[in-house]
Amino acid sequence: MAFYDNLTLEKGMYGADGQAFTKTLEALDPSAAYKGTELEHLDAFERQLKRFNIRVKGRGSDCVEKFFQSSQSAALFPEYVRRSVGQGAKTADMLGDLIAAHTKIDAMDYRPLTSVVSAEGTEEPSLVQVDEGAEIPATEIKMQKNLVKLHKTGRMLVSSYEAIRFERLDLFTVTLRQIGAMIAKSQLKNAVDVLINGDGNDNAAETVNVTTAGSVTYADLIQLWSKFEDFEMNRMIVSPDVMQKLLAIEELKNPVTGLNFQATGRLSTPLGAALYRASSVPAGKLIALDKNCALEMVTAADISIEYDKLIDRQLERAAITSIAGFAKIFKEASVVLNV
């Protein structure tokens, strides 16, 4: 009999030694031991689902009550919820394509770094020629003056076991994924605010105005592109109303752009920047950035579930939360166009 069949599961495994539930399981039942067997494609949590014969997806998925057939199988329910919420957050998350770095900490405040390039005591953003015996330009890395605050975002899952016990898990997963998508959108809103207004360290983005208020021309995009002398403008995030104006630009109507949109659902500008529409961007705003240098995402924890309530009280009210904040890396790596 495989070792995973003999594990004793309990709610104390959540947060044990500061580890996630799956990591605790993996320490007790390493996946490496199943290499070359029919179970090698499963992780420790998925092997426990197999142990209790719980099917969470597909036409033959079980009902929610299958998790609560025993106290041990009930201990798997919070991890199932966390994974389903995480899938929804990942699907709806465009942050992964916008951030340059992701930092994990164990606090609610974070002091980011900044760098200043200087030559002979003066700020000089570009590299300069060094004459013989002359001072070599220095890049000074230092802490920012003000802390970046992290924000908790989440949703309250309100229900009762009786209300969902006969609901199929594949349908319940859809609801949980939607919660994850809402969390991702809340975090994107915070990221957009930092890109525009900065993180409190005097690093708000430079703003430029269009030639004619209320409309966007190709010349306006060229003006925006020209602001990225030491960086690359490779991403644009726009409000829905600005997206409509961009789509009316003649240069965006070329056949290649149309084919890309039909094939992938994504647009690119004539200047090569990937284009994203987000309702979290204020109306009349277009944010251009270098995704490799502009934004740092800071998280204090992964998606958190109130596992006690999910196991002992079988739902009722359980908070699903994530703690994250954002910091500017280089002020000049993002520019805002006012339409």
The tally of helices reads 10
Number of strands: 15
Order of helices and strands: HHHHEEEEEEEHHEHEHHEEEEHEE
Range of helix content = 25-40%
Provide the number of structural domains. Answer: 3
What is the makeup of the main sheet? 6 strands, mixed
| Side-by-side strand order of the widest sheet | 8-15-12-9-11-10
Q: What percentage of amino acids are in beta strands?
A: 15-25%
Structural class: alpha+beta
Specify the overall morphology: elongated
Distance between the ends: 67 Å
The radius of gyration computed from the alpha-carbon positions, rounded to a whole number of angstroms, is: 25 Å
- Residue stretches low in confidence (pLDDT < 50, at least 5 long) are 119-123
Average per-residue pLDDT, rounded, comes to 85
Q: What can you see in these coordinates?
A:
The chain contains ten helices and 15 strands. It is α+β, with helices and mostly antiparallel strands and 339 residues long. The protein has three domains: 148 residues, no CATH class; 32 residues, no CATH class; 119 residues, hypothetical protein PF0899 domain (hypothetical protein PF0899 fold, 2-Layer Sandwich), CATH 3.30.2320.10. The strands form four sheets. Strands 8-15-12-9-11-10 form a six-stranded mixed β-sheet, with helices on both faces. A four-stranded mixed β-sheet has the order 1-13-14-7. A hairpin with a 5-residue loop joins strand 10 and strand 11. The chain is elongated. About 1% of the residues have low confidence.
